[in-house]
Amino acid sequence: MSRRRTPEPPVPLGPPLPPVDPPADCQECARRVIERDAARAAGDLARTIDMNILIKRHHPQGSA
């Protein structure tokens, strides 16, 4: 049995980006922060990242 080789080496990934901090007065983002924290506690990195993306899209300029 021969081993297959990939055409290129794997892409090195860095550590995950830090959590996104939404404005304190945004109720929608507050719910997402709660969901993000629960996902992180459960070890669900994909859902944690999803919540960060949704927060960032909702406040593209960052917290105000």
Describe the model:
- This protein has helices spanning 27-41, 45-58.
- It is mostly helical and 64 residues long.
- 45% of the residues lie in helices and 0% in strands.
- α1 runs antiparallel to α2 (45-58).
Number of helices: 2
Q: How much strand content do the residues show? A: under 5%
Question: Poorly predicted ranges (pLDDT <50, ≥5 residues)?
Answer: none
Average pLDDT? 85
User: Could you say which overall geometry the principal axes of the C-alpha atoms support?
Assistant: elongated
Q: Give the helices and strands as they follow along the chain.
A: HH
Q: In terms of structural class, how would the helical and strand content be classed?
A: mainly alpha
Kindly list the characteristics that best describe this protein:
elongated; mainly alpha; 64 residues
Q: What topology emerges from the helices and strands here?
A:
Blueprint: H1 27-41, H2 45-58
Helix pairs in contact: 1-2
In short:
This protein is mostly helical. The protein has helices spanning 27-41, 45-58.
